[in-house]
Amino acid sequence: MPILCEETSIYPQDLLDAQENNSNWCWYLVYTRSRHEKFLARHLLSKSMSFYLPLVSKEHFTRGRRTHSYLPVFSGYLFYFGDAPSDVYKLAPACVSSVMPVTNEIQLVNELRGIQTLLSSGIQLTIEASLMPGNRVRVRSGCMSGLEGTVLKRKGRTRLLVAVNYLQQGVSIEIDDCMLEPI
């Protein structure tokens, strides 16, 4: 039983594809107060402002009952796409700690597309913080074909890490070595 229903994590739905049309808009990384990511996303959605807050389903047990909740992949962060970062401050000043412009927007959007691909696949994901250096690879077959990431080894198993290097965080999935090719 979910504690709360899944909320909108991206607005508009084609944000990661359509953002080239607004040449005067930029990507911003919004650092929120602790546990205020979804609250800020709700405010942005109510004002039809473009944002991306990747959420992952997490199952846990509370008092012997199985519950599901949706947690931000990047705790404390939300990605905002607009013309002025001051709009976010004005909308919800109690939620926002700081807003930083993204320097390499093309790389960020490509990485966020990779995260979105994994989230929409329905595969069980693990949130990864503090990236470790590893080999860059590309998935060569299957439904994730073309997806790029870094190989991790955990408990003798191979995992593919898709990361947002700007934050040094990401998500990973378990994958067979035979599906990967070095870049």
Structural write-up:
The chain is of the alpha+beta class and 183 residues long. It has two domains: 10-102, Alpha-Beta Plaits, CATH 3.30.70; 126-182, SH3 type barrels (Roll), CATH 2.30.30. It contains four helices and 13 strands. The strands form three sheets. The chain has a six-stranded antiparallel sheet. A hairpin with a 2-residue loop joins strand 10 and strand 11. The protein is globular and about 50 Å long. The model has no long low-confidence stretch (mean pLDDT 88).
Give a topology summary.
Elements (H helix, E strand, L loop, with lengths): L9 E2 L3 H4 L7 E7 L4 H10 L3 E3 L2 E8 L2 E8 L4 E6 L3 H6 L4 E6 L3 H17 L4 E4 L6 E4 L8 E7 L2 E8 L4 E6 L5 E3 L1
Number of strands: 13
Written as H for each helix and E for each strand, in order along the chain, the element string is EHEHEEEEHEHEEEEEE
Which architecture of the largest domain would the CATH scheme give at its second level? 2-Layer Sandwich
Terminal residue distance: 42 Å
Order of strands across the widest beta sheet?
A: 8-12-11-10-9-13
SS field, number of helical segments: 4
Largest sheet, strands/sense/barrel: 6 strands, antiparallel
Number of domains: 2
Tell me the helix content.
10-25%
Using only C-alpha atoms, the radius of gyration works out to 17 Å
Q: Find the CATH topology of the largest domain.
A: Alpha-Beta Plaits
Which percent range describes the beta-strand content? 35-45%
